[in-house]
Amino acid sequence: MSDALDASLRLVRAQMSLVKRFDASLSGLHGVSLADFTMLLRLGQAPGGRMRRVDLAEKLGLTASGASRGLTPLERIGLVTRETDARDGRVAYAALTATGRERLTDMLTTAEQIAAEIFAAPLWSKEDVGHLSALLTRLGGSGFPGHGTPPP
User: Fold this and answer.
1) What tens digit of pLDDT does each residue of 29-44 get?
2) Which of 66, 82, 90, 102 is least surrounded by CB atoms within 10 angstroms?
3) What is the value of pTM for the model shown?
4) Three-state DSSP state, 95
């Protein structure tokens, strides 16, 4: 097995482990998955707490139908609402509701705690985390606005 394949498989396994850990806490405490949380977080960071649904899909690396499938349960539980453009009825926006903004704040606290546990000292230094972030950026990974590490 090549080093590149080994590294790729290790990265996939690490990603699955992180998703399970975030899903368990976010689901248990807030009733949402990591995918739901990232969708809500992206909306929360958008101007006015809303984005065109197609733009949200692009930012999350989803298809338009994948974003719609992800938004539907969030709409059902009142965290997100669907808005149409006053000038063009074909354009649909996803917007956080007041409840969505409130719950997102709580979810963000939980996610920060999980991340802090995962990257805790002495196993991880601040420099290690920054270096990992830079390496993941080189692979095409992107963080959220204001938190990205530029490629080295």
Assistant:
1) 999 999 999 999 999 9
2) 90
3) 0.86
4) strand
